[in-house]
Amino acid sequence: MRRSMSTRLNSSSGLTLLKGDSEELRSQAHRKRCEYLQEGAATYLIMRIVSYTNICVADCSYCAFYRKPNDPEGYVLSNEAIFKKLDDLIAAGGSLVAMEGGFHPKLKIDHYENLFRTVRTRYGNTLEIYGPTIVEVIFIARSSRISLEEALLRLQKAGLSWIPGGGAEILTNRWRHKLSPRKYSVEEYLDGMELAQRLGFGTTATMVIGFGESWEDRLEHLEHIRNLQDKTGGFSSFLLWTYQSDNTALGGERIDNQEYLKSVAISRLYLDNIPIIRASFLTQGNRGPLALKWGASDFDIVLEDQVTQLAGATIEPNIKRVLEQVKEAKIEPLQRQPFLQPFRALV
Ligand code: SF4
């Protein structure tokens, strides 16, 4: 693994760095990022998040997307509606779909097996499919009365090969209890991801900031991710985005972009065992390219994400315009495939 244990950040040295000169933090993170990808370049994917259902019983206070069972606005997408979205994604040059939903109390494991088998059969390897987050899979397993291992294996057999890092938000039990008490504990989240990695799924890691959590909370989250990565090496990237507060029960203000950039930088330095730090253009909009000089080396062009859009995120529909914004920051955007092996070799 590419890291120097003797100089690894910890909570104390991380806080000291965060309290110090911001330019020094940025420059250290940028140097670290350039160990993985040359300066003046950034990789990107064109993708879409397809929310196959918005019915959910988890009641997370930061979520503007979900509807309770029997709500007239609740839906489960038909296969035809999903195919239309995926056809549009491919036509736009996309290569990755994240298919996620909520904790739907009536959909059992066979529903998801059919869904992923149908999508995999129709699209083959034209699209990589990120499946439900591990918290969703835990819910599916429990409501189907099977073990998590069996649920994962059945989804894998149906054609699913990636479990994305969503559902992590802030990995401290204090914050999970406060914001999303039905979304499982830190230990359940990490054990679930470790199991998925052991069974051969590709995985990514994420963090969402801006709920009012402290820098100590964020560093605790990074410590959990880094520890699991030391053990398994299973995370291929880390994505950081900001809580969008419109139409949510929790409400509140969005954090400013400077705080986002500092969080990207400290993540790059802390996660010395993860090759790719991804900037969220989805939540940071046209300020997203700045993160590519604060430690991030990759970004997604997202064509749709109902979850963040309903909470106030605005998507730039013109892919060329997004790429121009990156070039205006003097960075060459390089489209990549979602499989990531060239970068994993560097870890
Ligand atoms: S964030 Fe996900 S799990 Fe939580 S209420 Fe929204 S859809 Fe449900």
Q: Report low-confidence residues grouped into runs of 5 or more.
A: 340-347
Proportion in β-strands = 15-25%
Tally of individual helices:
14
- The tally of strands reads 9
Instruction: Domain count, please report it.
Output: 1
- N- and C-termini, Cα separation: 5 Å
Helix content: 40-55%
Shape: globular
Main β-sheet, in a few words? 9 strands, parallel
Which value, in Å, is the CA radius of gyration? Answer: 19 Å
- CATH topology term: TIM Barrel
Secondary structural class: alpha/beta
Bound molecules: iron/sulfur cluster
CATH homologous superfamily descriptor: Aldolase class I
Question: Mean pLDDT across all residues, rounded?
Answer: 94
The CATH architecture term is: Alpha-Beta Barrel
Commentary on this structure:
The chain is built from 14 helices and 9 strands. It has helices at 11-19, 22-34, 79-91, 109-123, 134-143, 148-157, 173-179, 186-198, 215-232, 257-270, 281-284, 306-309, 319-328, 341-344; strands spanning 41-51, 96-100, 128-130, 162-163, 202-209, 235-242, 276-279, 298-305, 332-335. It is of the alpha/beta class and 347 residues long. α8 (186-198) runs parallel beside α9 (215-232). The protein has one domain (7-344): Aldolase class I (TIM Barrel, Alpha-Beta Barrel). Residues 340-347 have low confidence and may be disordered. Strands 1, 2, 3, 4, 5, 6, 7, 8 and 9 form a 9-stranded parallel beta sheet that branches. The N and C termini lie close together (5 Å). It is globular, with a radius of gyration of 19 Å. The site of iron/sulfur cluster has 11 residues, from loops.
